[in-house]
Design goal:
Blueprint: E1 2-9, H1 26-38, E2 45-46, E3 55-64, H2 71-79, E4 86-94, E5 106-115, E6 128-130, H3 136-144, E7 148-151, E8 166-177, E9 180-187, H4 194-206, H5 214-221, E10 236-242
Parallel strand pairs: 3-10, 5-6
Antiparallel strand pairs: 1-3, 1-4, 2-3, 5-9, 5-10, 7-8, 8-9
């Protein structure tokens, strides 16, 4: 049978999602915990790989097993073997046709950014940081150039393995609450470092180093050197994939309403 899980994790101390020889990745820790609970090796496939330092509020994975367990047993049993900064939020049996990555219609991220003359302290690793004031209107004007279906090569990491740089960005909303800025992204899929590279350019525009129209020029260049340096991973959160209603899977986890 095929089981889907919703996973949350703080990415600060991990080398990203994908398994590595070091074993210090989210996938390695999750599979170790699953295998300890099931007493047999289990391998997972995720909805979207996250980079080192990036957090996940509802990463979705699936795996196949012959074991018969109640959904709550997969949650509680696996969490027993996970570190404190990682937890299974829900478990659900799904049809064999379900695929955590291929069945996803869209993916959602949020970036939290602190604007302050002093660096973060209690929220270090959980927010990005800029010490220069930002112009929200300028960033929103720039963001509008990115909405739609485009070739995002200018925001693509050199190590990106995607077959095509063409993606459809359907949402890029920018809001502010006190000293914190929030950037909400939604697309059918994202390139490696795409959001962090867009953030770099948005922050430069917000700081007045570039005009809002520069974003259109960067996008049209289709050249990574045209965009700003990659921004820090600290404030980036994977909010989760969107699936069709037929799968009956949660789109969010109520434990994290403060950010979702």
């Amino acid at each position: 049978m095929r089981i889907a899980l919703g996973i949350s994790y703080l990415g600060t101390h991990y080398h990203g999602w994908q398994s590595q020889p070091s074993g210090q990745t989210v996938q390695d820790r999750l599979e170790s915990a699953l295998s300890a609970f099931a007493t047999v090796p289990l391998a997972t496939l995720c909805a979207g790989r996250t980079d080192a330092g990036v957090h996940g509020l509802m990463q979705v994975v699936h795996f196949d097993t012959d074991l018969q367990r109640e959904a709550f047993s997969w949650v509680r049993g696996t969490n027993r073997f996970l570190p404190p900064d990682m937890a299974v939020q829900w478990a659900q049996a799904v049809p064999d046709a379900f695929h955590a990555r291929a069945s996803a219609l869209a993916r959602r991220y949020a970036y939290l950014l602190l604007e302050s003359p002093v660096r973060p302290s209690v929220d270090a690793g959980r927010v990005g940081w800029t010490f220069r004031p930002l112009d929200g209107d300028a960033m929103r004007q720039a963001a509008r150039h990115l909405i739609g279906t485009h070739d995002f090569t200018s925001f693509r990491a050199s190590a990106c393995q995607a077959l095509s740089p063409v993606k459809q960005l359907t949402r890029l909303d920018i809001t502010r609450k006190g000293a914190y800025w929030r950037f909400d992204f939604e697309a059918n899929a994202f390139l490696h470092h795409m959001i962090r590279n867009i953030m770099g350019s948005l922050v430069q525009i917000g700081q007045g180093l570039l005009p809002p129209g520069a974003m259109a020029e960067v996008l049209a260049a289709r050249d990574r050197d045209a965009a700003a340096p990659t921004f820090a991973p600290d404030g980036l959160y994977f909010l989760g994939p969107r699936y069709g209603p037929a799968w009956g899977l949660p789109e969010r986890t109520s434990a994290y309403d403060w950010i979702e």
